[in-house]
Amino acid sequence: FASPLNCWFGRYCSAFPDSDAPFGSVGSFFEFRPLRGAFEANPPFAPAMLAKAREHMHDLLESAEGPLSFVVALANWKHAEVDSFRSSHFLRAQLVVPQEEQRWLDGSAARRAP
Q: Residue 91 CA to chain centroid, in angstroms?
């Protein structure tokens, strides 16, 4: 769930893999099929996207062939889709960062150093 303008890591999933691949995109998150590893996900906070992302992560976790985990960044909303993440049988820990301790970066400020 990144783009060349807001990625931090050298490899990331994006909505436009055809144009983003030269910048490190490995394709759509929904086509991403790791069998093991640890990943960070910050899906768009739209209910339909949250549901689709959760379902995809559950499918991946159920078919994992080795250790597989996701750290998922979500808005602390009172919403059914956020509650679905909180009640997932795959959930191992949860952390709510107080608003005064949060830092969000936009645009080129979020890019990793060369």
A: 15
pTM for this entry? 0.84
CA distance 78 to 32: 29
The Cα–Cα gap between 23 and 15 comes to 13
Is residue 48 within 8 Å of 80, Cβ to Cβ? no
Structure tokens at 18: 């055809």
HSE (CB half, 13 Å, CA atoms) of 19?
6
pLDDT of 88-97, one tens digit each?
999 999 999 9
Tokens of 44: 């768009």
pLDDT at 102: 83
Digit-coded pLDDT (tens) for 29-48: 999 999 999 999 999 989 99
Rg, Å, the chain Cα set:
15
